Amino acid sequence: xTRMTQEATRSLAGAASxxxxxxxxxxxxxxxxxxxxxxxxxxxxxxxxxxxxxxxLRTRVPRVLLVTKTVLASGxxxxxxxxxAAALDPSDSPAAHLADTLTAGGGLCDPRAVEVLVxxxxxxxxxxxxxGTMFDRDASGGLALTREGGHHADRIVHAGGDATGxxxxxxxxxxxxxxRADPGIEVIEHALxxxxxxxxxxxxxxxxxxxxxxxxxxxxxxxxxxxAALGRAVVxxxxxxxQVYRSSTNPAQATGDxxAAALRAGATIGDVEFVQFHPTVLxxxxxxRGQLTLVSEAVRGEGALLLDTDGVRFxxxxxxxxxxxxRDVVAHAMVRRMAQTGADHVLLDARHLGADFLRARFPTIYxxxxxxxxxxxxxxxxxxxAQHYHSGGIVTDLSGRSTxxxxxxxxxxxxxxxxxxxxxxxxxxxxxxxxxxxxxxxIASRVAAGELPQRDPVDRPGPGALVAAAARSRIQRAxxxxxxxxxxxDGLIQAAADxxxxxxxxxxxxxxxxAPQTGEWETTNVHQVATLLTQAALRRxxxxxxxxxxxxxxxxxxxxxxxxxxxxxxxTLELGPTPLD
Length: 581
Ligand SMILES: Cc1cc2nc3c(=O)[nH]c(=O)nc-3n(C[C@H](O)[C@H](O)[C@H](O)COP(=O)(O)OP(=O)(O)OC[C@H]3O[C@@H](n4cnc5c(N)ncnc54)[C@H](O)[C@@H]3O)c2cc1C
What we know:
It is a single chain. By secondary structure, the chain is an alpha/beta fold. 32% of the residues lie in helices and 17% in strands. The strands form 6 sheets. Strands 7-3-2-11-20 form a 5-stranded parallel β-sheet, covered by helices on one side. A 5-stranded mixed β-sheet has the order 21-19-13-22-23, with helices on one face. A 4-stranded mixed β-sheet has the order 1-10-9-8. The radius of gyration is 23 Å and the shape is globular. The site of flavin-adenine dinucleotide (FAD) has 45 residues, from α2, α5, β8 and α11.
């Protein structure tokens, strides 16, 4: 360990029992905006949450601007396989869906948010059908419903067998394309939001309301380079944090931009330590990085089994629901079994389900595995847990309002309280729709009531941060070894020290390694999220849901609370407990 690492380790060990006390930049280093545009509402992101919000807002406020980092069909939504959970069968009920969601959440869900999710969910799914989504049908023409881990009823609608997200995205993008020429909506693709613009601070020195964003557009003419988009309200629908880790099921865009930018702007972030690691991600060797192929939980839902590398089935001894136990239970059991057998993967056996059935039910997974010369119908599939979903995020109320006036969040970037310590399978697409819909309605009524005036942005003080893109793999290694599947004080303190050694000063990055640009902005966000995640995981000295500490392996009632983080006016990280209502 270097001297700097030892010092950082000592100070962070102290921080574990007090306030984190870390300085984090309140903005990214970026050139001054060279152009400006205005709208009533700015929606960031075009996954299920962003598209739902934009389509809903379009008819309710005069001008909507939708910006997205790459193309409209992007984000995790496109990759979703299993489906969307909703109590649609007469034998099922929102109350039963609520009970399963609360169980998965490990005592930390906000029951009011879950109530909203399960009661409004069925209507949102039907709306998707009217918007043109072609869900799979059963023999009688009704929606085909299947089951996934943690659900006690068949309540998952799916499309194209295992291509639900692609179909949902196709339908919503088609709806948006149909109105794209409408003067009430503007879409800017290849536009990366850098920071939230905020109005003059209040007497407490904290940033004033959100009044727009700075963004970098790879465009042409007057909309090229760094600009500013001003609005009465900003909706973050920027998705997850997968690229914080070495291996994840999330696409390249999932760099935690929304959480990092909201934190910098003064919003409260919560439940950040709860990360879902999907148990069955195709294992292709320890050196493989980036987005990995997911083998959906629905494969286990249809009866596939987990075997260790000696061919022994191990889940029935771990949990009454065996392979369909909650994801964290399955992932931890796999890691423990891998340690016992000395292997770095286990095996998924779907062979007994029949070749015709597997090819028809899971055509996408079947084809993706074949690309790696694995035949789902005849071969055992090597799998290991990888980062999959982030339960925490920007804290919002039931209308999607964050703690920063004018800033809303919906979808995976938000912390609505629906997931608590762990997400129930197939509840995330549903959450994105339900809460984006609510946020849109809330914004529209506040705009109509004149409650969201357009304000002027002011500069936030302090130096802008910039981490060299080349540091990304080092940050990912720290995150994977620290706040990974199984955590401990030693691993987390080391990760915090490693992260503290990463240079974040723009001068260093600009002068020595890089200039302000996409790779650097994203990597700075990855670094800030990894830092926050590590601090929160270090602070929570218990195990619950997606947070497992080998040094505190049991849940502790004293920890039935939410850890929240904000930046103080001097940009110090304030991390502390917030009681559940
Ligand atoms: C492989 C896989 C399978 C899954 N299967 C399921 C499933 O079966 N059921 C289920 O419910 N959930 C599933 N999930 C989770 C679910 O897909 C996501 O939680 C959900 O799609 C998130 O939707 P979203 O709209 O919040 O974000 P996303 O769909 O991730 O979209 C985020 C959008 O924000 C944009 N963006 C990000 N940063 C910026 C920025 N700085 N500036 C501008 N734009 C930005 C992105 O480009 C993208 O358009 C799965 C996830 C994965 C990865």
